[in-house]
Design brief:
Elements: H1 5-15, H2 19-26, H3 30-39, H4 44-54
Length: about 60
């Protein structure tokens, strides 16, 4: 699955979160989150966990 870094950044801005806050909600290090966000192609489980950490449906973070 391809996640949209732009959509994730918008959600982070709405929550007034940094990547570190997202990493804490996801349960990994900031470096691991950066790797996930930069590779853009993630597993379905990772996409689901990212969406859950942000409090949104997974469809909201996928590329169009």
């Amino acid at each position: 699955m391809k996640v949209s870094r732009e959509k994730i950044n918008l959600l982070l801005a709405r929550k007034q979160w940094t990547v570190r806050n997202l990493a804490e909600a996801y349960g990994v290090t900031r470096n691991r989150i950066n790797i996930l966000l930069n590779q853009r192609e993630v597993s379905t489980v990772s996409a689901g966990k990212l969406a859950a950490a942000l409090g949104v449906d997974v469809t909201e973070i996928l590329e169009d």
